[in-house]
Amino acid sequence: MIKGMTHNEDGTQNKITKYRGKISAGYGPGEGPEKKNYPTASGFFRMMKEVTKNQRLGASTTIVPVKEWVVNDEVQKKLVASCNNNPQPRRIEICCLYKEPAEMWESSLSMYSQNDGLICKGHGLGSTAKHLVFEDGDRRWEPRECLFEECPDYKSGKCKATGLLKCFPTIDLAPNPYRFETRSINTVIGIESSLSDLMSLVHSAHLVKQMEAGSRLPFDGLFGAKFFLVHRKAKSGGKNIFITDLMPTPEFTESVMEPIRRGLLVKAKNSKLIGAAGSMSLLQEAGHMLLEAGKSSAEIAETDAEGAVPLDLDDQRDLAVNFNSGDDEEVVEVSEVQVQKESTSVPEDISRKAVEALMGDQVTPAK
To answer: What residues make up the domain containing 304?
Structure first.
């Protein structure tokens, strides 16, 4: 352990993820049918792998190795086959091997340079951003206040919302995850909201299981959950844009909703009995135990609110060059987005409402 390098001052490890590949929904510069010199939307998912190519440096004879992302033909064929042989697949099944959303998803305000990669990263108004400063040939990270909408870089469009999802496609399941990146504010808000709502439902289902078992049970969170990444068109400000949704698979939906249905049936049955007040107190006690055991997702996310910066600068430089920002890049006000909600959507405060519906008014300590 080297505090300040391999670990933060509080002992938290600085992790560098080794990715197996990338899930892209756009073409990089010079790719695609039109060969534009900037990222553009492809309209469908592409499974990418990283390769190293030798490239001549300018007009000199110097040859340097350059990393590039190219389509992984073998995995792409599997994706096409999983989507009924559609050559432009817009759905991919992924598996979550993390317990908390904060372990698989991060959103931030970030600014990139094609030559230097990540040069500024913060988490919005009131947070402390990390800014890369160049002075006398030296590069160092310095803290600066994140001004959000008042920041000149944000106003000019250089600093944008960024989302990074670490996931495991079931068509190519391996120890190392794939990464899905987006700079669409609509996709960022959508994925973050979905993870929050689904985590609330998982908590509620777990409370019912504890009630039924009569004792505390280990909480696995989202580990083992399967989702779909769905790429689709949406209307925003009169424009057609692409966004990516995160949706639970039918199997995962059933595994979560079935315990909640059982809990609601028990609550309805007990509510008809005389003196039934407090009959669900075990569930309520289980909720308190869960809240007291470890950090919640929000608390975990809050620990990174000061804008931790990855140490792998080459990886961040690659992100700036190959970023698939064109897939759903339209920067619009969220209030303008007109997307028809799926029937699987849940209320924002589902955890509190579901638990209150299942709980009694009195608390009896669990045995």
So the answer is: 83-358
Can you tell me the distance from the alpha carbon of 318 to that of 181, in angstroms, rounded to the nearest whole number?
12
* Token representation of residue 42: 């492809």
pLDDT at 55 over 80: no
Give the integer Cα–Cα distance in Å for 74 and 47.
9
Q: Specify if 47 maps to a domain.
A: no
Backbone angles phi, psi at 347, to 5 degrees: -60, 155
Return the ∠ at Cα 28 (arms to 26 and 33), rounded to 5°.
75
Q: How far is CA 302 from CA 127, 193, 321, in A?
A: 10, 16, 29
Q: How many domains, in total, are found in the chain?
A: 1
pLDDT digits (tens, 9 = 90+) for 326-347: 344 433 333 333 333 343 333 3
Residue 254 in any domain: the answer is yes
Residue 342 DSSP class: P
3-state SS class at 169: strand
In a domain, 223, yes or no: yes
Asked whether 79 and 93 are in contact (CB, 8 A), the reply is no
- pTM of the predicted structure, to 2 decimals: 0.72
Phi and psi, residue 153, nearest 5°: -70, -35
The alpha carbon torsion through 348, 350, 351, 355 (nearest 10 deg) reads: 150
Two tokens at 112? 């990139």
- Count of other CB atoms within 10 angstroms of residue 201: 20
Q: How many residues does the chain have?
A: 367
Q: Does 90 reside within a domain?
A: yes
| 261 backbone dihedrals φ, ψ, rounded to 5° | -60, -45
